[in-house]
Sequence to fold (123 residues):
Amino acid sequence: MTIKECVEDVVMRGCDDWLDACGVASVAMNIGHAHSAEEIRDLSLKIIREVVQQGLMEVGDLPEEGRRLKLWPMTPQECLDRVEREWEALGRNPSLSEICWLENTDKGDALGEELFKQRDAGK
Fold:
């Protein structure tokens, strides 16, 4: 497993729908083979950091209405700091809808679609 494989999996999932912190933790366990709560948290935070810093995904909350995620009104680094703080405060792996949601950017969708094509061509 590499962080790249985890990031690619998260971005591909983001092509279909928003992904919450619980979903990222699932990728950390299933793709990244993280086992302990600390390993899952650390790898999940690395994955989130990568997708945000690469401009592949944005962080926010579920909207009250509408089809776009309600993005957090802060810099990418402030978003990452908040996710880390909230995960630490939770003291466990997040459940559905806890901490944050991630939405692919146009760049993330383009990468995800390319990864789907590569995967399908390899079959």
